[in-house]
Design goal:
296 residues; 12 helices
Length: 296
Protein backbone atom coordinates (compact mmCIF):
# COMPACT_ATOMS: atom_id res chain seq x y z
CA UNK A 1 0.00 0.00 0.00
CA UNK A 2 2.83 2.38 0.81
CA UNK A 3 4.39 1.67 -2.58
CA UNK A 4 1.08 2.65 -4.23
CA UNK A 5 0.90 5.90 -2.24
CA UNK A 6 4.54 6.62 -3.10
CA UNK A 7 3.65 6.15 -6.79
CA UNK A 8 0.77 8.62 -6.42
CA UNK A 9 3.06 11.06 -4.62
CA UNK A 10 5.65 10.81 -7.39
CA UNK A 11 3.12 12.18 -9.91
CA UNK A 12 3.73 15.78 -8.84
CA UNK A 13 7.50 15.32 -9.16
CA UNK A 14 7.13 13.98 -12.70
CA UNK A 15 5.27 17.16 -13.63
CA UNK A 16 8.55 19.00 -13.08
CA UNK A 17 10.92 16.33 -14.41
CA UNK A 18 9.14 15.89 -17.75
CA UNK A 19 10.15 18.79 -20.02
CA UNK A 20 6.88 18.96 -21.96
CA UNK A 21 3.89 21.27 -21.82
CA UNK A 22 1.28 20.30 -19.24
CA UNK A 23 -1.30 19.33 -21.90
CA UNK A 24 1.23 16.96 -23.52
CA UNK A 25 1.89 15.27 -20.18
CA UNK A 26 -1.83 14.75 -19.58
CA UNK A 27 -2.49 13.39 -23.08
CA UNK A 28 0.35 10.87 -23.05
CA UNK A 29 -0.39 9.88 -19.44
CA UNK A 30 -4.01 9.03 -20.25
CA UNK A 31 -3.14 7.28 -23.51
CA UNK A 32 -0.39 5.14 -21.95
CA UNK A 33 -2.54 4.35 -18.89
CA UNK A 34 -5.47 3.36 -21.10
CA UNK A 35 -3.42 1.13 -23.41
CA UNK A 36 -1.55 -0.57 -20.55
CA UNK A 37 -4.77 -1.17 -18.58
CA UNK A 38 -6.49 -2.53 -21.71
CA UNK A 39 -3.66 -5.01 -22.28
CA UNK A 40 -3.75 -6.03 -18.62
CA UNK A 41 -7.50 -6.69 -18.68
CA UNK A 42 -7.17 -8.63 -21.94
CA UNK A 43 -4.33 -10.79 -20.61
CA UNK A 44 -6.16 -11.50 -17.34
CA UNK A 45 -9.44 -12.02 -19.27
CA UNK A 46 -11.41 -9.57 -17.15
CA UNK A 47 -14.68 -8.17 -18.50
CA UNK A 48 -14.78 -4.42 -19.08
CA UNK A 49 -17.50 -3.83 -21.71
CA UNK A 50 -20.23 -1.28 -20.91
CA UNK A 51 -23.38 -1.85 -22.97
CA UNK A 52 -25.73 0.71 -21.39
CA UNK A 53 -25.54 3.88 -23.53
CA UNK A 54 -26.71 6.26 -20.77
CA UNK A 55 -24.07 4.92 -18.41
CA UNK A 56 -21.45 5.22 -21.13
CA UNK A 57 -22.35 8.88 -21.72
CA UNK A 58 -22.01 9.55 -17.99
CA UNK A 59 -18.55 7.95 -17.98
CA UNK A 60 -17.53 10.09 -20.95
CA UNK A 61 -18.62 13.14 -18.94
CA UNK A 62 -16.48 12.02 -16.01
CA UNK A 63 -13.61 11.46 -18.45
CA UNK A 64 -13.86 15.15 -19.39
CA UNK A 65 -13.65 16.10 -15.70
CA UNK A 66 -10.55 13.91 -15.30
CA UNK A 67 -8.89 15.65 -18.26
CA UNK A 68 -9.60 19.09 -16.79
CA UNK A 69 -8.44 17.94 -13.34
CA UNK A 70 -5.06 16.73 -14.59
CA UNK A 71 -4.60 19.72 -16.91
CA UNK A 72 -5.09 22.16 -14.04
CA UNK A 73 -2.98 20.02 -11.67
CA UNK A 74 0.05 19.89 -13.97
CA UNK A 75 -0.46 23.56 -14.87
CA UNK A 76 -0.23 24.38 -11.14
CA UNK A 77 3.01 22.40 -10.89
CA UNK A 78 4.60 24.09 -13.88
CA UNK A 79 3.75 27.66 -12.82
CA UNK A 80 4.73 27.18 -9.15
CA UNK A 81 6.02 24.12 -7.28
CA UNK A 82 5.06 20.46 -6.94
CA UNK A 83 4.62 20.98 -3.19
CA UNK A 84 2.08 23.79 -3.62
CA UNK A 85 0.07 21.80 -6.17
CA UNK A 86 -0.05 18.65 -4.05
CA UNK A 87 -0.93 20.60 -0.92
CA UNK A 88 -3.91 22.22 -2.66
CA UNK A 89 -5.31 18.74 -3.26
CA UNK A 90 -5.90 18.50 0.49
CA UNK A 91 -8.88 20.84 -0.03
CA UNK A 92 -10.62 18.09 -2.03
CA UNK A 93 -12.15 16.82 1.22
CA UNK A 94 -14.04 20.09 1.71
CA UNK A 95 -15.68 19.81 -1.70
CA UNK A 96 -16.49 16.12 -1.22
CA UNK A 97 -18.23 16.97 2.08
CA UNK A 98 -20.96 18.94 0.25
CA UNK A 99 -20.89 17.26 -3.17
CA UNK A 100 -21.41 13.72 -1.88
CA UNK A 101 -24.70 14.49 -0.07
CA UNK A 102 -26.02 16.10 -3.25
CA UNK A 103 -24.96 13.34 -5.66
CA UNK A 104 -24.99 10.23 -3.45
CA UNK A 105 -28.02 11.38 -1.43
CA UNK A 106 -26.31 10.74 1.90
CA UNK A 107 -26.58 12.80 5.09
CA UNK A 108 -24.52 16.00 5.21
CA UNK A 109 -21.61 15.78 7.67
CA UNK A 110 -20.89 18.95 9.60
CA UNK A 111 -17.66 17.33 10.85
CA UNK A 112 -16.31 16.77 7.32
CA UNK A 113 -17.24 20.30 6.25
CA UNK A 114 -15.60 21.82 9.35
CA UNK A 115 -12.38 19.88 8.78
CA UNK A 116 -12.41 21.03 5.16
CA UNK A 117 -12.61 24.66 6.29
CA UNK A 118 -9.65 24.07 8.63
CA UNK A 119 -7.66 22.71 5.68
CA UNK A 120 -8.41 25.95 3.76
CA UNK A 121 -6.98 27.90 6.72
CA UNK A 122 -3.84 25.76 6.50
CA UNK A 123 -3.49 26.55 2.80
CA UNK A 124 -3.84 30.28 3.60
CA UNK A 125 -0.99 29.99 6.13
CA UNK A 126 1.15 28.17 3.57
CA UNK A 127 0.65 30.78 0.86
CA UNK A 128 0.54 33.89 3.05
CA UNK A 129 3.91 35.15 1.81
CA UNK A 130 3.95 33.35 -1.53
CA UNK A 131 5.16 35.06 -4.68
CA UNK A 132 3.06 35.76 -7.75
CA UNK A 133 4.02 32.46 -9.42
CA UNK A 134 3.08 30.47 -6.32
CA UNK A 135 -0.26 32.29 -6.07
CA UNK A 136 -0.97 31.36 -9.68
CA UNK A 137 -0.13 27.77 -8.80
CA UNK A 138 -2.43 28.03 -5.78
CA UNK A 139 -5.40 29.12 -7.92
CA UNK A 140 -4.84 26.36 -10.47
CA UNK A 141 -4.32 23.84 -7.68
CA UNK A 142 -7.51 24.79 -5.81
CA UNK A 143 -9.56 24.54 -9.01
CA UNK A 144 -7.96 21.17 -9.68
CA UNK A 145 -9.01 20.02 -6.20
CA UNK A 146 -12.64 20.92 -6.94
CA UNK A 147 -12.49 18.89 -10.16
CA UNK A 148 -10.86 16.04 -8.25
CA UNK A 149 -13.78 16.01 -5.81
CA UNK A 150 -16.29 15.92 -8.69
CA UNK A 151 -14.36 13.11 -10.33
CA UNK A 152 -14.22 11.07 -7.10
CA UNK A 153 -17.90 11.50 -6.19
CA UNK A 154 -19.20 10.75 -9.70
CA UNK A 155 -16.99 7.66 -9.88
CA UNK A 156 -18.36 6.50 -6.53
CA UNK A 157 -21.88 7.00 -7.90
CA UNK A 158 -21.17 5.03 -11.07
CA UNK A 159 -19.46 2.27 -9.09
CA UNK A 160 -22.03 1.87 -6.29
CA UNK A 161 -25.31 2.94 -7.88
CA UNK A 162 -24.84 1.91 -11.52
CA UNK A 163 -22.61 -1.07 -10.64
CA UNK A 164 -19.76 -0.27 -13.05
CA UNK A 165 -16.48 -1.92 -12.04
CA UNK A 166 -13.53 0.26 -11.07
CA UNK A 167 -11.40 -1.26 -13.86
CA UNK A 168 -14.04 -0.46 -16.50
CA UNK A 169 -14.46 3.08 -15.20
CA UNK A 170 -10.74 3.78 -15.35
CA UNK A 171 -10.28 2.20 -18.78
CA UNK A 172 -13.13 4.11 -20.44
CA UNK A 173 -12.22 7.37 -18.72
CA UNK A 174 -8.60 7.14 -19.85
CA UNK A 175 -9.52 6.49 -23.48
CA UNK A 176 -12.38 8.98 -23.68
CA UNK A 177 -10.20 11.56 -21.92
CA UNK A 178 -7.44 10.99 -24.49
CA UNK A 179 -9.88 11.42 -27.39
CA UNK A 180 -11.46 14.57 -25.90
CA UNK A 181 -8.04 16.11 -25.31
CA UNK A 182 -6.87 15.11 -28.78
CA UNK A 183 -9.88 16.86 -30.35
CA UNK A 184 -9.43 19.93 -28.16
CA UNK A 185 -5.75 20.26 -29.01
CA UNK A 186 -6.58 19.87 -32.69
CA UNK A 187 -9.17 22.66 -32.53
CA UNK A 188 -6.70 25.03 -30.83
CA UNK A 189 -3.92 24.16 -33.28
CA UNK A 190 -1.69 22.44 -30.72
CA UNK A 191 -1.65 19.08 -32.50
CA UNK A 192 1.23 18.92 -34.98
CA UNK A 193 4.43 16.92 -35.57
CA UNK A 194 6.23 18.83 -32.82
CA UNK A 195 3.64 17.63 -30.31
CA UNK A 196 5.11 14.12 -30.48
CA UNK A 197 8.76 15.20 -30.29
CA UNK A 198 10.40 14.43 -26.96
CA UNK A 199 13.66 13.26 -25.45
CA UNK A 200 14.29 9.68 -24.40
CA UNK A 201 14.21 10.88 -20.79
CA UNK A 202 10.75 12.43 -21.20
CA UNK A 203 9.47 9.28 -22.93
CA UNK A 204 10.82 7.09 -20.12
CA UNK A 205 9.23 9.25 -17.41
CA UNK A 206 5.92 9.24 -19.32
CA UNK A 207 5.93 5.44 -19.43
CA UNK A 208 6.63 5.39 -15.69
CA UNK A 209 3.83 7.92 -15.08
CA UNK A 210 1.26 6.16 -17.28
CA UNK A 211 1.99 2.55 -16.32
CA UNK A 212 3.29 2.54 -12.74
CA UNK A 213 1.82 5.76 -11.30
CA UNK A 214 -1.57 5.41 -12.96
CA UNK A 215 -2.85 2.07 -14.30
CA UNK A 216 -0.67 -0.36 -12.26
CA UNK A 217 -0.94 1.65 -9.03
CA UNK A 218 -4.71 1.77 -9.46
CA UNK A 219 -5.06 -1.99 -10.02
CA UNK A 220 -2.73 -2.89 -7.14
CA UNK A 221 -4.63 -0.56 -4.81
CA UNK A 222 -7.90 -2.40 -5.49
CA UNK A 223 -6.30 -5.73 -4.53
CA UNK A 224 -4.68 -4.24 -1.42
CA UNK A 225 -7.97 -2.75 -0.20
CA UNK A 226 -9.54 -6.22 -0.40
CA UNK A 227 -6.84 -7.51 1.95
CA UNK A 228 -6.28 -4.73 4.49
CA UNK A 229 -9.67 -2.99 4.41
CA UNK A 230 -10.84 0.38 3.14
CA UNK A 231 -10.25 2.21 6.45
CA UNK A 232 -6.55 1.27 6.65
CA UNK A 233 -6.07 1.94 2.95
CA UNK A 234 -7.69 5.38 3.17
CA UNK A 235 -5.59 6.29 6.19
CA UNK A 236 -2.45 5.30 4.29
CA UNK A 237 -3.39 7.32 1.19
CA UNK A 238 -3.40 10.40 3.42
CA UNK A 239 0.40 10.13 3.44
CA UNK A 240 0.55 11.18 -0.22
CA UNK A 241 1.19 14.90 0.50
CA UNK A 242 4.04 13.97 2.85
CA UNK A 243 5.67 11.71 0.27
CA UNK A 244 5.30 14.35 -2.44
CA UNK A 245 6.77 17.16 -0.34
CA UNK A 246 9.70 15.02 0.84
CA UNK A 247 10.40 13.89 -2.74
CA UNK A 248 10.19 17.51 -3.94
CA UNK A 249 12.74 18.59 -1.32
CA UNK A 250 15.28 15.91 -2.25
CA UNK A 251 14.72 15.66 -6.01
CA UNK A 252 13.71 19.23 -6.94
CA UNK A 253 15.39 21.10 -4.05
CA UNK A 254 12.14 22.94 -3.35
CA UNK A 255 13.23 23.52 0.24
CA UNK A 256 15.27 26.42 -1.15
CA UNK A 257 12.13 28.36 -2.18
CA UNK A 258 9.71 27.26 0.57
CA UNK A 259 9.73 29.25 3.83
CA UNK A 260 8.90 28.25 7.44
CA UNK A 261 5.19 29.11 7.01
CA UNK A 262 4.96 26.48 4.30
CA UNK A 263 6.05 23.72 6.67
CA UNK A 264 3.91 25.02 9.54
CA UNK A 265 0.84 25.09 7.30
CA UNK A 266 1.73 21.70 5.82
CA UNK A 267 1.98 20.14 9.28
CA UNK A 268 -1.39 21.67 10.18
CA UNK A 269 -3.03 20.23 7.04
CA UNK A 270 -1.51 16.78 7.50
CA UNK A 271 -2.66 16.79 11.14
CA UNK A 272 -6.23 17.51 10.02
CA UNK A 273 -6.07 14.82 7.34
CA UNK A 274 -5.04 12.22 9.92
CA UNK A 275 -7.59 13.49 12.45
CA UNK A 276 -10.41 13.10 9.92
CA UNK A 277 -10.88 9.28 10.07
CA UNK A 278 -10.18 9.19 13.82
CA UNK A 279 -12.84 11.81 14.56
CA UNK A 280 -15.28 10.01 12.26
CA UNK A 281 -14.74 6.80 14.20
CA UNK A 282 -15.38 8.62 17.50
CA UNK A 283 -18.52 10.19 15.99
CA UNK A 284 -19.81 6.81 14.77
CA UNK A 285 -19.23 5.19 18.17
CA UNK A 286 -20.98 8.07 19.93
CA UNK A 287 -24.03 7.86 17.65
CA UNK A 288 -24.09 4.07 17.99
CA UNK A 289 -24.05 4.25 21.79
CA UNK A 290 -26.68 6.98 21.75
CA UNK A 291 -29.02 4.90 19.60
CA UNK A 292 -28.46 1.92 21.87
CA UNK A 293 -29.44 3.98 24.95
CA UNK A 294 -32.58 5.31 23.23
CA UNK A 295 -33.65 1.76 22.31
CA UNK A 296 -33.37 0.71 25.95
Amino acid sequence: MHMVVLAFGFTGILGKLIQLDFYQIVFFRMLIAGVSLFLFLKITRRKFQIKNRKTLLKIIGVGLIVVLHWLTFFKAIQVSTASIAVLCMATTALHVSWLEPLIMRRKFSALEFSLGILVIIGVVVVTNNAGVSQLNGLLWGLFSALLSALFAVFNAYLNKVEKVSSASLTLYEMFTGSIILLLGLGIFGKMNIDFFKMTFSDFSWLLFLGIFCTSLAFMVMIDVINKIGAYTATLTVNLEPIYSIVLAVFILSENEILGPKFYIGSFFIVLIVFANPLLKKIERNYLKNRRAKLQR
